[in-house]
């Protein structure tokens, strides 16, 4: 296929989209299709960097077929993986998204619009699960409420902002194995306040994420296992981090 994404090193890049990927052949195509659609208003200005994290499937081949940059990483740490992608990025604006999520066609234009106002340091997005149930709602609630009390009412799921500001706050905290996203949001929020800007939420575009963990472990999984919630609040529990992100890997 003709690549929908920027390639080479000679043209200016507006957006760099960073995607951590660990054996994501079932999901990465949907994610990249959505980013390609969102990139249409910016021909040649959007690069996608897929972080190939010890994949044993066709994730890298699929990403390369779209014209995405693929970078191998060995870390078992999402902060290190994302930071490596940010370090390699050539774009003025960083966007991070998980491989099992996808966005509406207007996501990049909305991010661009909000940054152009000069009011926002960056931020998160409005998001939804691909399906709903009472169990998913309750599981989300028992996780979100404690994190809200610890870090404040900040949106996560997909992060956006100028690369210079990601660099200014030191990127993602590599001491965090879980909840590194909301911890990053908290520091970006504080950096924004220091610079007279707000932490924003994209509300006119939507990110949807898969329910694969609920499909695997049950919709009530977080309600039934409060230890996972405690691990998210702690942030550096290797056992639960491995269960959450590397459960299919032999220990």
Percent helix range? 40-55%
The low-confidence parts are none
User: What gap, in angstroms, lies between the N and C termini?
Assistant: 38 Å
- Oligomeric grouping of the chains: single chain
- Global structural class: alpha/beta
Largest sheet: 8 strands, mixed
Shape: globular
Cross-sheet strand order for the largest sheet: 3-2-1-4-7-6-8-5
Count the beta strands.
Answer: 8
Mean pLDDT: 91
Report the radius of gyration as a whole number of Å: 17 Å
**Strand coverage percent:** 15-25%
How many helices does DSSP assign? 11
Report the order of strands and helices.
EHEHEHEEHEHEHHEHHHH
Notable characteristics:
single chain; 251 residues; alpha/beta; eight-stranded mixed beta sheet; 8 strands; 42% helix
At a glance:
By secondary structure, this protein is α/β, with parallel strands linked by helices. The chain is built from eleven helices and eight strands. The chain has helices at residues 28-39, 59-65, 78-88, 107-116, 134-151, 163-168, 180-194, 212-217, 221-224, 226-234, 238-245; strands at residues 15-21, 46-53, 69-73, 93-96, 101-103, 120-129, 159-162, 198-209.
Write the layout of secondary structure elements.
Layout: E1 15-21, H1 28-39, E2 46-53, H2 59-65, E3 69-73, H3 78-88, E4 93-96, E5 101-103, H4 107-116, E6 120-129, H5 134-151, E7 159-162, H6 163-168, H7 180-194, E8 198-209, H8 212-217, H9 221-224, H10 226-234, H11 238-245
Parallel strand pairs: 1-2, 1-4, 2-3, 6-8
Antiparallel strand pairs: 4-7, 5-8, 6-7
